[in-house]
Amino acid sequence: MKQQSCRLCKGRLQTILSLGDMPLVNYFPIEKEIGQERKYPLTLCVCRSCSLVQLDYIVSPDKIFPVYHYESGASKPLVVHLEQMVEGAITMFGLKKGSKVLDIGANDGSSLMYLKKKGMKGLGVEPGKNIVKLARERGIQMVEGFFTKKLAKTIHKKHGLFDALFATHMLANVVDLHDFMEGIKLVLAPKGVIVLEVGDVEEMIQKVQFDAIYHEHYSYFSLASLTKLLEEHGLKIVRAEKNPFHGGSIRIFAKHDGFKTQDSRFKKREGRPLGKKNYQEFAEKVGEFRKEFRAFFKKNKGKIIVGYGAPAKAVTLLNYCGIGKKEIQLIIDTTTAKQGRVMPGVHIPIVFEEKLREIKPDYCILFAWNYKKEIVPKLQRVLPKTTKIIIPHKKYTTKR
Ligand code: TYD
Ligand code: ZN
Fold first, then answer.
1. The Cα angle at residue 391 between residues 296 and 57, in degrees rounded to 5
2. Strand bridging mode 261-262 / 305-308
3. How confident is the model at residue 74 (pLDDT cuts 50, 70, 90)?
4. How far apart are CA 359 and CA 382, in angstroms?
5. Of 104, 219, 296, 297, which one has the greatest count of Cβ atoms within 10 A?
6. 3-state secondary structure of 15
7. Residue nearest to atom 23 of ligand 1 (CA)
8. Ligand 1 within 6 A of 370 CB?
9. What is the DSSP letter of 211?
10. How far apart are CA 6 and CA 14, in angstroms?
11. Ligand 2 centroid to 235 CA: how many Å?
């Protein structure tokens, strides 16, 4: 469904970049489903009034999340990141044994496993039926569904208030942001803290990470738009941090009340929000990327080229660039749910990591570039010395 106005403030939307019709990124088809993927327009816009970056065409969450092939546990660095986030909350906000924590968008329960180890009482909310099952098998208490004001009321009735709420890289996946925030207010204890982490849209634009654009990312936040959203609902950011996760993220801690501190990396940017020029340059660089990426395959026709990582972002990158199984033989990924399946839209087969030992590619493209620090040494150990590892985006940045 196409939206006529901003989901946050009803302001007018301006197009930044249109990527054409794209398949959904977290349902990986099996062989006999090939060609049946539905495609939807994917267009990035910015609100002229409140500057929230967002998609104008909304694919209903009911079509995206109930069967979902993303598993947090498949990426070890993510598990470590989540554990460190929990540790941070423990140190700074006094969470302890017996504290009650709600993890919204809990996925396979990776954060909650750690909370449990620390003796806290955790509950997860997650709409992915298959992933809820995984989390329950790990002994995590889960509520299946989307976190809305309505569900918050039910949770409140049954479980009362929570000392901490975690929502990690999931706010972008929420269509009705106001309803979500009202739900938060209902279940957060008077002195409770919400820990919210989102991808930083300013980093995405500057580093030309257009592969973070896909249908389930309905919104793309900056500290400014996040602050506005929380403040509208009477929540105060008490601490704001930047971290390099997923190419650049913002983590905020908010309470019903309190004073704000933020890390020094934000200060440099104050007073210089992104403008029309930045978005224009971003769109141009995305076009350049496509041209060069396609030229690479033309030049290397006949060479053995494989991919490492089948993240959602690879689906956007490959579909937008029009690169498929003619160019890339296979993609390696550690996610159990993605095995024996193909990349949506471009149908490159996905295989387990063991395959790495059998192949001798000329090139290996690292689609999970956000984990390059962990993955490159692994590839260098296993692949022949002659294999060249390619990291997308390396040379693409835009000026501020
Ligand atoms: P991720 O970057 O978390 O996200 P998104 O889907 O949001 O773009 O996905 C990383 C993918 O890479 C995921 O499918 C797991 C896979 N992966 C590996 O195959 N090997 C690894 O060593 C790591 C860290 C991830
Ligand atoms: Zn707006």
1. 85
2. unpaired
3. very high
4. 10
5. 104
6. strand
7. 75
8. yes
9. G
10. 10
11. 19
C-alpha dihedral over 345, 348, 354, 355, to 10 degrees?
180
pLDDT value, residue 378 = 94
Q: Which atom of ligand 1 is nearest to the CA of 338?
A: 14
Task: State yes or no: pLDDT of 263 exceeds 70.
Answer: yes
Tokens of 138: 């790990």
Sheet holding 121-126, edge to edge: 142-144, 121-126, 100-104, 162-168, 188-199, 249-255, 236-243, 261-262
Q: Could you give the CA distance from residue 165 to residue 115 in angstroms, rounded to a whole number? A: 12
Q: Please name which of 327, 332, 313 lies closest in space to residue 392, comparing C-alpha atoms.
A: 313
CA dist list (Å): 13 to 6, 10, 17, 43, 287: 6, 9, 12, 11, 22
Integer Cα distance of 340 and 349 in angstroms: 7
**Closest listed residue to residue 314, CA positions, set 336, 343, 350:** 343
Helix (H) or strand (E) holding 230: helix 223-232
Does ligand 1 come within 6 angstroms of the Cβ of 73?
Answer: no
Name the residue with tokens 């942001």. Answer: 177
- For 92, list phi and psi in degrees, rounded to 5: -85, -30
Q: The pTM is what?
A: 0.94
CA of 78 to the centre of ligand 1 (A): 9
- Which among 333, 343, 365, 382 is the best mutation to test ligand 1's pocket, defined by most ligand atoms within 8 Å of the CB? 333
Q: What is the pLDDT averaged over residues 316-329?
A: 97
Beta strands in the chain (DSSP E): 13-23, 39-47, 53-55, 100-104, 121-126, 142-144, 162-168, 188-199, 219-220, 236-243, 249-255, 261-262, 305-308, 331-332, 350-351, 363-366, 388-390
| In contact, 104 and 168? CB cutoff 8 Å | no
Residue nearest to atom 11 of ligand 1 (CA): 311
